[in-house]
Each structure stands twice: as structure tokens, then as C-alpha cells.
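Exercise 7. Given the encoded structure of a 150-residue chain, write a plausible sequence.
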């Protein structure tokens, strides 16, 4: 099975001292990815990703899927930004404002990361939506584990 490599690098020069670290995370057993740039109209809340869809397609994944990596970057968000909402199967939700160039990211095994309601499972995520303050643009990258195709 393919392995997704996720690189994270932080670097700062503070008081003349360079501090830098790069980490690499391998996420195994990836069978499908969806990578898109999406224009979001200023027309209310727009669901961009759904993990409970019966039919796979752009931003749509069957519940048999196991999301292991989710990244959403605000390419254009305006001065007020956009509101990102993660909805979970236990009726919990998490919101975060994304401004220009901000990134929202979740990655881990199905039980190795805290999510919106603190359940610790990416598999509890049902959908992710965006409420823009103006016409906006996002980029997303989603990777699912081997169980995502029937």
C-alpha cells in the first residue's frame, strides 16, 4: 500500500539564533486521495467534505473510509476570513476562523488524535464546511486508508 509522507518544518531566527526543526510523518496504507482547489461563493455555509456519502466523488467519501490526513488551506479568505466547521457523528462540532494562508490540519491514526469534540478519532468526522465572509478560495488534500473503497 502507498505511504503518504507529511513534512512539517518550523524555522525562526530569534535574537540572532536560528532555530529550526523538520519532522516527517509516514502515513501507511493510503488507497485514495482527493486534492483540489475550490472557489467558495459568498452564499452561506458550503459543505466541502463529507465522509458519510453513499457515492464517492469530489469531496465525498463513503463511511467505510478512514480519513488519516486532512489539510485545508485558505488561499483567499478576505479581511474577515472564513469560518471552518468540523461536524462529528456524536453531534459535536469544532469551528475555527481561517484567514489568508492559514492552514487547518488533522493527521493521525483513527484513534491517535483529538478532534473536534475531543473524541480522539478522525473516523468520527462526518463533514467539514466553510462559511466565507466574501468569495473565497481554498485548497484541500484528503488521504484515506485502505478501507475507503468498497
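Solution.
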Amino acid at each position: 500500500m502507498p505511504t503518504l509522507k507529511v513534512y512539517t518544518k518550523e524555522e525562526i531566527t530569534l535574537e540572532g539564533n536560528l532555530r529550526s526543526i523538520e519532522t516527517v510523518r509516514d502515513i501507511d496504507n493510503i488507497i485514495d486521495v482527493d486534492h483540489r482547489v475550490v472557489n467558495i461563493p459568498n452564499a452561506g455555509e458550503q459543505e466541502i467534505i463529507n465522509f458519510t456519502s453513499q457515492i464517492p466523488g469530489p469531496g465525498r467519501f463513503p463511511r467505510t473510509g478512514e480519513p488519516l490526513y486532512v489539510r485545508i488551506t485558505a488561499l483567499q479568505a478576505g479581511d474577515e476570513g472564513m469560518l471552518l466547521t468540523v461536524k462529528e457523528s456524536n453531534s459535536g462540532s469544532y469551528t475555527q476562523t481561517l484567514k489568508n494562508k492559514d492552514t487547518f490540519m488533522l493527521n493521525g491514526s483513527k484513534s491517535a488524535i483529538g478532534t473536534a469534540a475531543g473524541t480522539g478519532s478522525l473516523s468520527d468526522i462526518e463533514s467539514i464546511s466553510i462559511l466565507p465572509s466574501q468569495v473565497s478560495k481554498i485548497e484541500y488534500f484528503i488521504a484515506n486508508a485502505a478501507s475507503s473503497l468498497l
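Remark. The longest strand covers residues 4-14. Students should compare their own answers with the one above.
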